[in-house]
Amino acid sequence: MPINKQQVRTALTHVIHPQMEKDLVTLDMIEDLVVQDSFITFTIDLPEKDTKLETLLKEKCEKAIRKYVAEDAVLDITTAVNISKFRNKENSGDFPGQGHRSQKKQQDEEELLSGVKNVIAVASGKGGVGKSTVAVNLACGLARTGAKVGLLDTDIYGPSIPTMMDTHKRPNITTQKKLVPLKKYGVRFLSMGLLVDPDQAMIWRGPMVTSAVKQFMEEVEWGELDYLVLDLPPGTGDIQLTLVQTVPLTGAVIVSTPQTVALDDARKGVAMFKKVNVPVLGMVENMAYFIPEDMPDKKYHIFGKHGARKLAERMGTNFLGEIPLEQAVRESGDAGKPIVLQEDLKSKSAQAFVELSNNVMQQLSIRNQEQAPTEKIDIKIKP
Ligand SMILES: Nc1ncnc2c1ncn2[C@@H]1O[C@H](COP(=O)(O)OP(=O)(O)OP(=O)(O)O)[C@@H](O)[C@H]1O
Ligand SMILES: [Mg+2]
Question: CDD domains per the record (predicted)?
């Protein structure tokens, strides 16, 4: 008789979590259950990394399935850390026994990035609007002023910073097992792309990505920094939401191009940060107008005019500046030498990035005068 999912679930009700004293099904720890002929696969979700517990639970699950379902079943059981799911359960009191650990976790989070004065997230709703370009040029623009700056690429699926900073070296590790950021153009930087194989990361589920990013935050020797710029992956989904909760963000910079489809997503980006009480420092209009290389005095508003500026006004958010669409921006990105580092600041986009960096610094000091540091946020995410 073919095996069905219900049989497997019933078998897993016999697997008791050693600390929680409830079964894995009741604790909602079983995900992605697939049954095909005698092949059974599923994931055991855990609130945090615990290798011993993972091995124990896998063994218990295997035993239960062989005993109650089929002795010769072919099993593929994986484990995953799903912070957001269990944080939600802790809050609602559904996941007893985690109170102590949760307190410890909170302390860890408070200490996270303690040597960093300002953490800035560069985000957008839509992909490909120039977040990484803005993040790199903002970091280098801030470093131009003599500030101590860090840059972290959190885009595990499509990391761009190694190319844009022209460095693909693996970072060193200190004797305390902390990663040492790379350094170029006066900016300390790291990219998950330097450590994780992007092809491998493609198959990671959201919680794995966020826990990897959190680990990244904790295990990097950033030292003292005036500014740490985070390049966020595109979108406003669970990954971004968990990311912006994990890190004590000082403020967010939203990037958009002027056209309607990008603006709609930018609006969602602003809403996401407001929802989690992270101040939005303002909006940047990238690719605001096209400047042909051979006619540098011409401006073509190919994606529309002032779309992001108007949206910022409507949403009561600052407008931080407009960056022209110029071939030199793309070329400098591909060559790994951010355009803002142009010595004579000849190009309009280099000037625009300098202005943007100044505006961001100004908004940060206003924000820091007017508001208390961003607190750890407790919001509920649907698992
Ligand atoms: N102002 C600009 N002028 C010319 N080219 C630009 C400009 N801004 C970005 N680009 C180019 O557009 C492409 C996409 O930019 P970028 O990678 O910064 O976008 P992104 O929002 O980070 O994308 P993703 O959502 O994939 O992370 C890159 O090739 C970049 O060089
Ligand atoms: Mg990017």
Answer: Mrp_NBP35
Per the document, the length of the chain is 383
Q: Residue 229's closest CA among 84, 361, 372? A: 361
Cα distance between residue 150 and residue 219, in whole Å: 14
pLDDT tens readout for residues 260-269? 888 888 899 8
Same domain, 90 and 152: no
C-alpha 175 – ligand 2 centre gap (Å): 32
DSSP assignment of 310-347: HHHHHHT--EEEEEEE-HHHHHHHHHT--GGG-TT--S
Say if residues 121 and 252 touch (Cβ distance below 8 Å).
yes
User: How many domains in the chain?
Assistant: 2
pLDDT digits (tens, 9 = 90+) for 104-134: 444 444 467 778 999 999 999 888 999 999 9
Nearest to 89 by CA among 100, 78, 79, 99: 99
Cα angle at 9 between 16 and 82, to 5 degrees?
65
**What is the distance in A from the centroid of ligand 2 to the CA of 189?**
15
Atom of ligand 1 nearest to the CA of 129: 21
Sign of CA dihedral 87, 383, 233, 282: negative
- Whether 50 is covered by a domain: the verdict is yes
Angle, CA 307 vertex, CA 304 and CA 311 arms, to 5°:
165
| Cα gap 33→43, rounded to integer Å | 7
Residues 15 and 75 in one domain: yes
Mean pLDDT of all residues in 287-305: 91
Q: Are residues 227 and 333 in the same domain?
A: yes
* HSE of 326, CA atoms in CB hemisphere, 13 A: 27
Last residue of a domain, one of 56, 83, 107: 107
